[in-house]
Amino acid sequence: MPPHRWSSKHFLDSEVQAVRGAIDIMRTIGRFAMVLTVGSMLAACSSTHKPVVVTPDMLQGQIWVMSSLNGEAPVGGKRVTMELTQGSASQGKVNGRGPCNSYFGGYQIEKGAVSFGRIGSTMMACREPVMQQEMAFHTTLQKTNQMLMDGRTLTLKEAGGQDSIVFMAETGRVKGEVQSSTGGFPRNSQMTIRLSDVSKQDTQLQIIGEQKIKLKGELHGPVAFDLPYAPHLIQAGHTYAVSVEVRQNGKLLYTSKSHYPLNLDKAALDVKAEPVKTM
After folding, report:
1. What fold characterizes domain 172-275?
2. Which pLDDT belongs to residue 47?
3. Of all helices (H) and strands (E), which one includes residue 218?
4. What pTM, to 2 d.p., does this model score?
5. How large is the greatest C-alpha to C-alpha distance in the chain, in angstroms?
């Protein structure tokens, strides 16, 4: 049998087929790589951290500060708070400061569902926009049946509903010491340290953070404080300062005569408390 002879045309056809085969392989690899990439993206999305249902023990020792009510920020930047304390495995007490008044009541968490009992409050009157938000706050709180935590964010909402209250944890800290000008503080008194917005001198100070310390015994020397505040309440261009007062049975005994400007770059703040002069 005579040997097979390859013509140039035959050789060219073979080369074209080889190239086409290589292209098909590359397309297959490309599609496979795309599937892997999309699959990896979907897997990453499916593993995204999700909010968890709150249990009573997760809420202890934390004051929560409202960042929004039904999508709106607190009127006038007010510090609206909520503190939940556990009374039993599923029940506890709730109290805090609303847009206008202090409030108090009870709550229950059972099988992941939360409910708030009747909420009482003080009866102070505020300007209309604040009172409207106060009413909305209490209404939304009473409708809440779901409480979710995502990191340092706590959301109260009605399952399937549009209304919600979003709270943020007080993660900011101002540390320092309070020194009495007389060398000490009386026993059974209470010290209150406040961080306030002092930008507008002609209006009531806006409280950003507050810490209360019970002084059971007579103290000589400085009192250390670790004042928490919610960073989302700090506004650019505003001025903030720390003040202190000491009361015994409701009577004001000591106060800081001036406000101490907040310096986040300073390690600690030294505050001086002076006795209140009685007439």
Report:
1. Immunoglobulin-like (2.60.40)
2. 37
3. none
4. 0.69
5. 133
CA distance 122 to 99: 12
Rounded Cα–Cα distance for residues 269 and 263 (Å): 8
| Element containing residue 216 per DSSP (H, E) | none
Domain 56-169 classification at class level: mainly beta
The span from the CA of 210 to the CA of 196, in Å, is 9
Beta bridge partners of 173: 228
Q: E strands of the chain, at which residues?
A: 52-53, 63-69, 81-86, 91-97, 102-110, 113-116, 120-121, 146-150, 153-157, 164-169, 172-180, 184-185, 189-197, 206-215, 219-220, 223-229, 240-248, 251-255, 260-261, 269-275
For residues 214-244, b (16+ Cβ closer than 10 Å) or e, as one string? ebeeebeebbebebbbbeebbeeeeebbbbb
The pLDDT value recorded for residue 235 is 83
Distance from C-alpha of 241 to C-alpha of 271, rounded to nearest angstrom: 11
Sign of the alpha-carbon torsion through 228, 252, 224, 186: negative
The whole-number pLDDT of residue 258 equals 79
CA–CA separation, 205 and 249 (whole Å): 24
Q: Which amino acid is at 25?
A: I
Alpha-helical (H) ranges within the chain are 8-46, 128-143
**More confidently predicted of 65 and 50:** 65
| Domain ranges (residues) in the chain | 56-169, 172-275
